[in-house]
Amino acid sequence: MTHKRIAVIGAGVSGLTSIKCCLDEGLEPVCFERTDDIGGLWRFQENPEEGRASIYKSVIINTSKEMMCFSDYPIPDHFPNFMHNSQVLEYFRMYAKEFNLLKYIQLKVGNFVGTFVFEVVCQLHEQCGIEKFKGQYFHSRDYKNPERFTGKRVIVIGIGNSGSDLAVEISHTAKQLISLSLPAPMITLLSLFLAFITTHRALSQHPTVNDDLPNRIISGLVKVKGNVKEFTETAAIFEDGSREDDIDAVIFATGYSFAFPFLEDSVRVVRNKISLYKKVFPPSLEKPTLAIIGLIQPLGAIMPISELQGRWATQVFKGLKTLPSQSEMITEITKAQEQMAKR
């Protein structure tokens, strides 16, 4: 019997485990990676490639190694419970070597695979008039270390995990003030702890995990503000009428938007959301020949979820599992979206 060949796009976390799942089911994977190495997001680079998400140098994963590891390859005992990004990448390299995954990966594929890459678009909130601001401003994707902000006044917009980490880290070098701004979509458990006023319920967004942030706030090293209404050349004016003058830099830790322009007929993104059956399969395809692995924001690590999704997808590709009818899948997707909206 002829083996089915499966194209895996990207050699990051989800790509690596998808290759492994293909091999487990006797399928023939070929992985296309447009860069020169594996690891995806977890491969730190001072100058990341265009259109690719990126981490900063100090990132430590906020999920324990027991909860983030793949089921068939535990993280070594001598690794710390919460690992630095370099150790996370080392683990992925060990995983790839253990299961001989590298021979199925084509690196530096170039323009051919460029159209298949998960597209990341930074949101710079131009509606706030940031173009008027004369200081530095950029997305957290381009942040690498705090030294460049020594002695400066900095605003970090966003209080997710990246925003909190950046605020804490920069507060060690900045002059007197880090203003940690809370856009409306970003509610966290921390905001409840500090009795912030927001329009969202608890757990309606991905929770922030940062042990140092409360201490930096109560010591005055991080100053918490509300939504930014507008920027001037040197200041930020907030919705409550207050303002912060002589600002040197603004960092937008406001997340990413994504798109699949090469799959417009089968995969549509509306308001940064995508309709997939069980978060994996587009319901509109005549045959289940496409699976989106890892496009989910869990309360925890993505690695085990990507592994489970990969197992299911490869069993569907092999014909061991079948999907419901298109109408049943759409009904299930609608129901899931309605339940999520109520939370």
Automatic annotation (TrEMBL):
Swiss-Prot/TrEMBL keywords: Endoplasmic reticulum, FAD, Flavoprotein, Monooxygenase, NADP, Oxidoreductase
Keyword check for Oxidoreductase: yes
UniProt subcellular location: Endoplasmic reticulum membrane
Superkingdom of the organism of origin: Eukaryota
Gene3D superfamilies per UniProt: FAD/NAD(P)-binding domain (3.50.50.60)
Primary site of residence: endoplasmic reticulum
Record's keyword annotation contains Flavoprotein: yes
EC number assigned by the record: 1.-.-.-
Cofactor(s) needed: FAD
Pfam families (UniProt xref): FMO-like
Root EC class: oxidoreductase
One GO cellular component term: endoplasmic reticulum membrane
Molecular function per GO: flavin adenine dinucleotide binding; N,N-dimethylaniline monooxygenase activity; NADP binding
Assigned protein family: Belongs to the FMO family.
Protein's UniProt name: Flavin-containing monooxygenase
Natural source organism: Myotis davidii (David's myotis)
Native organism taxonomy: Eukaryota, Metazoa, Chordata, Craniata, Vertebrata
